[in-house]
Amino acid sequence: MNFTVGYQYPDEEDGTRFPEIVRDYIPAVDEVYFAAGNDPGARSPAAIASGLEADEAEKILLEDLNGLKHLGIRLNLLLNANCYGAGCISIALEKQVLERAAFFLERGLLDGVTTASFFIAEVLKKHFPELPLRSSVNMKLGSLDALEYAGELFDGFCLQRDLNYCPDQLRILAARAKEDGKSVCLLANSGCLRNCAAQIFHDNLVAHMGEMDFKACARNTDPVFCRRFFRDKSRRQDYLAYSTLIRPEDLVHYEDITSRIKLATRTHCNPRLVMEAYCSGHFRGNLFDLTEPGHGILFRGCVLDNTRIPADYWLRRSSCSGDCRTCGFCRKIMADSLVSCEEII
C-alpha cells in the first residue's frame, strides 16, 4: 500500500520541516499533496493557517517541495475548493489555474493535480494534457454513473468516503476504473461523518474562509455540524457507527481495491503520528488522535482505545445492514473501547 499525505508548513514549536517527517516513511509514502499560498480549498488557506506572510510562505513551500522532490516524492497540487463564487467559470480563474500549474511545472515540482471543479479539470486537460488529474474526495464519486460522468476529464478518482465500509461497491468502482485505464484511492482517516448532510455546506464555507469577515459572522453560531451533533451526549455512543475512519489494522481488507491510500495531514496536529500508524499497519493509542478533523475534545477525559477494538470489527461492520438504530454492534464496541484517561494511567 502506498500513501499520499498532505503538506504542512513547519511546526511552530520546533521548526520541523515536512520533508524531514516524510523521509522516515519512504517508500510507503510516495506522494505529497499541497495547496499554494492562500488559494481556496477544502481546508483553511494554507498560508493564513500557518500565520506566515505570503512571501515567506511561498519561500518555505518551494524549499520544502524541492526537498521532497529530491527524496523522490511525487507532488500533487490541490485546486480543490468546492466553491469559487461568481468566478467559478471565469477567464480570471482560468488564468490563475494555468499560471499556478505552469509555475510549478517549470520548476519540476508538479506531477499531478487534484480538483473538485469540472471547469478547472477541463482547463488543465486542454492546456496540459499529459498532467494527471485526480478527482477530489469531496466530489462524492460513489457510483458507476459518477465515474462515467467524470471519466472524460479525470485520470484517477478519490472515491466517496461514505463507502469506506461498503467493500462490494468499492470493488465494482475500482474494477470499472481499471477497465478504463484509471486509478482509485481512498481517504482513510477523515473525521467527517458518514453521509453527513452538512458536508456540502461546510465545504463551501471553507472555500470562502480566506475572504470571510469573521467579525461580521452571526454570534453563537457553530457552522461545524458534526461538532454540534455530538454535543448531545446521547449521540456519542454512535461515534464509531457514524465514522468513516479506516483503522490502520484494517487496510489489509482494501488491498484488492486500491494500492493508494490518502491520509489527511494538512491541518493535523501530529502528522508523524498518522504516518507511523498507517505505514506500520498498527496503532496502540487513541483513535480520536488519528482523524482530521478530530473529535477528541468532545470526549475530553476519555480515550477510544484502539487495542480494545476486536479483530473482527471490520468484517462485522462491512457486512452490516446500515440500520444503526436496531443493530447496536458499533455502539457496544464503543462502550467497551471508550475508557477514561484515569483507567489508562
Write the layout of secondary structure elements.
Elements lengths: L1 E5 L11 H6 L5 E6 L11 H5 L3 H17 L3 E6 L11 H16 L5 E4 L2 H10 L5 E3 L8 H8 L4 E3 L8 H13 L3 E5 L11 H9 L17 H5 L9 H4 L17 E4 L7 H10 L21 E3 L8 H6 L5 H4 L1 H9 E3 H4 L1
Helix pairs in contact: 4-5
Explain what this protein looks like in three dimensions.
The chain is an alpha/beta fold. The protein has helices at 18-23, 46-50, 54-70, 91-106, 118-127, 144-151, 167-179, 199-207, 225-229, 239-242, 271-280, 313-318, 324-327, 329-337, 341-344; strands spanning 2-6, 29-34, 74-79, 112-115, 133-135, 156-158, 183-187, 260-263, 302-304, 338-340. The chain has an eight-stranded parallel barrel, surrounded by five helices. Helix 4 crosses helix 5. The model has no long low-confidence stretch (mean pLDDT 90).
In short:
The chain is α/β, with parallel strands linked by helices. It has helices at residues 18-23, 46-50, 54-70, 91-106, 118-127, 144-151, 167-179, 199-207, 225-229, 239-242, 271-280, 313-318, 324-327, 329-337, 341-344, and strands at residues 2-6, 29-34, 74-79, 112-115, 133-135, 156-158, 183-187, 260-263, 302-304, 338-340.
- Which strand order spans the largest sheet, edge to edge or round the barrel? 1-2-3-4-5-6-7-8
Based on CA atoms alone, the radius of gyration comes out at 20 Å
The coarse silhouette is globular
Question: What kind of sheet is the major sheet?
Answer: 8 strands, parallel, barrel
